[in-house]
Queue: 2 jobs
Job 1
Amino acid sequence: MRAARIHAYGAADELRVEDVPAPRLGPDDVRVEVHAASVNPVDVKIRSGGQRAVVWLSLPATLGLDLSGVVTEVGARVRGFAVGDEVFGSPSHRRMGTYAEEISVRANELARKPRNLTHLEAASLPLVGLTAWDALVEACELRAGERVLIQAGSGGVGTFAIQLAKHLGATVLTSCSPRNFELVRGLGADEVLDYRTQDFEEVAAGVDVILESVGGEAVDKALRTVRPGGRVAAITAGLPSLTARYGPALGLGMMVARTLKQALGARVRRGVRLSFVTRRPDGQVLGRIAELVEQGRIRPVVDRVFDLGAIADAHRYVETGHARGKVVVRVRPEDP
Ligand SMILES: NC(=O)c1ccc[n+]([C@@H]2O[C@H](COP(=O)([O-])OP(=O)(O)OC[C@H]3O[C@@H](n4cnc5c(N)ncnc54)[C@H](OP(=O)(O)O)[C@@H]3O)[C@@H](O)[C@H]2O)c1
């Protein structure tokens, strides 16, 4: 089968589409014919080696953490999926590899694809949907009537999180640049701030919850901005820059020390709960996300679609940091 692999950590040119053996199927796994994948910023971080303290790759390795496709085989212990089912999902890091014509995934990391979406649309949702869910529903327990700041509302996580927060009954303030104001308002944002000219510490002062995705100093700022007793979910802990500076082991140690200090300080000084969220692969949550999509409460926002053969260009585009919604990879040419 064809797959996009890296043989060494490095720039986007390291991604090569080549013939590789088909994946093995375990008793709890489902084999999926992949129709579409998506590119997430974490793929870029993994490719460049910035995550190597926490994501151990045996090189050469196939990247990719989102898929939509069709079940072609089920493992002996699998219940609930059959050959021919259309599924979507986000495998765990240890089982990544959706930039490929086939993948073997743990069945409990998959759900039925929303019936009203194409594979290209469905592949855009799992990783960002699970992240937004873990941040807003699980970590921050966002409630109806609360005011939430969603940073980078025009990005992959942000476009999903705005819609999820509105579904939960919150008032949504979001940040992006003016060219994306119309997009985020169309997704339900009540207030929009231009992060290039406005300081969110002033505009969002006193919000109940912040979904922080910018990282660096923005995390400390978020802890000062949220109301006393509020909640902050941070999804960017800055591991790649610490790894580049100090190497993987020391970089990881410094990240852990810094995040613990931030969380403890915020709790002691202002009663603020800071959670560092990492996406948890979970087929049940994905099933609930699929229901929201089928009910029309959440829609995918696909910016650009690249063929698997142009995967390096897809990475370069995501690396600009200015995608509008999601960047999707067409794995099967027949998918419109
Ligand atoms: N912890 C986890 O499990 C997890 C999961 C998913 C993502 N993440 C991380 O979260 C971050 C965001 O992910 P993503 O997929 O949403 O990224 P993305 O799609 O690449 O985000 C792009 C968007 O960010 C906006 N943006 C750039 N700089 C900004 C700033 N300073 N303030 C506000 N908006 C800004 C851009 O808006 P304009 O073009 O309008 O400037 C663009 O629309 C990444 O670092 C990613 O690695 C973590």
Job 2
Amino acid sequence: MNTRVVELLGLKSPAGVHPPSQKLAATTRIEFAPLPDSAILPLQQHIGAPAKAVVKKGDKVKVGQVIAEASGFVSAPIHATISGIVKQLATVASPVTGHPVSGVIIESDGKDEWIELTPADPEALSKEEVLTRVKDAGIVGMGGATFPTHVKLSPPPEKSIKSIIVNGAECEPYITADDRLMLEETDRILRGLKTMMQVLSVKRAYIAIEENKPQAIARMRQAVTESSLPGEVEVVAVPAKYPMGAEKTLVKAILGVEVPEGGLPMDVGALVQNVATLAAVYDAVALGKPLVERVVTVTGLVSEPKNLLVRFGTAALQLIELCGGIPPEADEMIFGGPMMGIAQVSYDAPIIKGTNCVLVKQSDIRVEHSCIRCGRCIESCPMDLMPLMYVNYVKRGAYESLSDYHITNCVECGACVYNCPANIPIVSYIKIGKTELQKQGEK
Ligand code: SF4
Ligand code: SF4
């Protein structure tokens, strides 16, 4: 095993943009957020089928108790994140789509009483036992994708995984949750990686960190050198360029190969896992701890940006108040970063598994102009696409032509929007185009 910082010379560095990094909370240590008086838990916090409630109004629950079961292979259970009483099975707004979804509201008893956890030695567990622990803990991709981790760890036999790419790029402006996790919880991340390498019999891993995080790079390199990881693990300093943290961009930058259109990293023998997901895998496998909390960066116009360890279901407003409250000039709150984040309809929106950041900001309403065919969107696209053609075809309703321009390869990163002088919300057109194409395919 060795470590090195790889200069990506000789490999094709994907295109992208350089928005101001604004990592306001980069030097702020992770703090515990107080437990909420009530937790609002949507049952759709992951890609796939929503979980199905298994509790009813009035039930007493402990932290870590399953309150909703996975309802298929591509699904994940939801656990109580505070102890108390189930106050209501309600319809709540999804922080991801804004649409109404089923949810469970728990009222706290103030005791923070946990279920009994069952620790284990990860090395003494079979592959099936590890996968069961990951699945039962409700772990999903915590970089924002929220794909159930047990599914990613169960590739079909014909897709053998040769290398794991640990995603510590954190390329979105403002967000520092993963950076702090790499500095403060290095050991948990590497133990999670070790388990994944053993489960998949992988001998090669790369820990990808943007070069503007020198402390995290140094910390990881030192920890890797001192660890007993089963294979060759490299800490790779990738260019600080948005969207370096997108799965397909990382695969291209590190392995020098492109994931085929409509495909997954496993199609080129790679598995990409976010650092927070690896820490959660360690918690689940070694400690028997379900996923009930995560680190969230609360930042933007707040007076004291922070990285907070937050139980799911906590209202964003409670966190914003810990960081100085909502300043008068702010009129928008986003979950995630400014490039791909999702504007929330209420400051009471609950933190869920995929929420890595609460960004308090001023809304940025721009007038859309006509395309001037400058080509800047093409230059900025990390997937070598022609974004202007999507705008053109969607405006004309010529959805069938979108496939000719490989629209399904778009990762919706927004780099094209950032660079567009005509303020065209290109990603909105792309989303419409993808939806319409899918409808046509279903007919
Ligand atoms: S960047 Fe905007 S204006 Fe320029 S070609 Fe692309 S869509 Fe048109
Ligand atoms: S077309 Fe898609 S992948 Fe390319 S820059 Fe725009 S949003 Fe990103």
